[in-house]
Amino acid sequence: xxxxxxxxxxxxxxxxxxDSKVNMNRILQRFSVASVVGRGSIVRxxxxxxxxxxxxxxxxxxxxxxxxxxxxxxxxxxxVRLGDTAxxxxxxxxxxxxxxxxxxxxxxxxxFSHPADxxxxxxxxxxxxxxxxxxxESRNVKPIGYSINSNADHAKWIQDINETQNCKVxxxxxxxxxxxxxxxxxxxxxxxxxxxxxxxxxxxxxxxDPQKIVRMILTYPASTGRNFNEILRVIDSLQMTAxxxxxxxxxxxxxDRAVIxxxxxxxxxxxxxxxxxxxKPYLRTTDKY
Length: 289
Ligand code: BEZ
Description:
By secondary structure, the protein is of the alpha+beta class. The protein has helices at 2-31, 64-75, 100-104, 120-131, 133-138, 151-165, 180-185, 228-244, 266-272; strands at 36-37, 40-42, 47-50, 53-56, 61-63, 90-91, 98-99, 108-113, 141-146, 173-174, 188-193, 199-201, 203-208, 214-220, 246-247, 258-260, 277-280, 283-286. The strands form six sheets. The chain has a five-stranded mixed β-sheet with strand order 10-9-8-13-14. α4 (120-131) crosses α6 (151-165). The protein binds benzoic acid. Residues 115, 119-122, 222-223 line the site of benzoic acid (BEZ). GO terms for molecular function: thioredoxin peroxidase activity.
């Protein structure tokens, strides 16, 4: 019982401290980057919840010059939309210098960013991409990783990834130390900041087709590792549309019945997918693909 009381008291104290911290944080959030402490300003970091507890993540006081840099970096970001031509770039990478369009050639591409090298979730993600090598190859896809780390960091980290994830990372990681690609694709997140309080990339994914058109964009938060099987599934779907005039219904997986594109006439559909099923005039399906 004594132990229980002690632990109850401890929890109550922690909770009080926690409440006042949370209140303080709310005040700080309201004042955001305008708050002044001494000669610096407070960069807003949102509360994070984990196992029912709310706490502040990496809130720190940084000089005005830094908050001005955060704002100006974010303001420089461009944004890529579906249907855009993937912005081309030339950069150093762990596989040598890369010019994106030239490197992709007739392949599809998956350009994906992560917050930082030597972090746990990113380590598992990069390992997973390496493990899926044959899946990318069979779909004619080249994966390309990116973070604002240097080539030297990438090269050192790859050794850890290979060791811990039982894989061989042999796709390029772009040297992002000048942040130019992050700015070009709009990968920087105002809430994920590095040790200097400057924005980091989040988990962005751009699927690029052989004509260099961006066909899929996805953004996950830093704390959630991506499901690369889902990205492969989307590529399967995109390729069904590009090569077979088919779309894919909810929860579709390769082999399941697909949907005939509305732009395909019944006459053409009969030639392409003999015996297709008409559920409604606008809902026609087939498994012959
Ligand atoms: C990670 O890769 O483990 C990670 C990075 C930033 C925030 C949280 C997790």
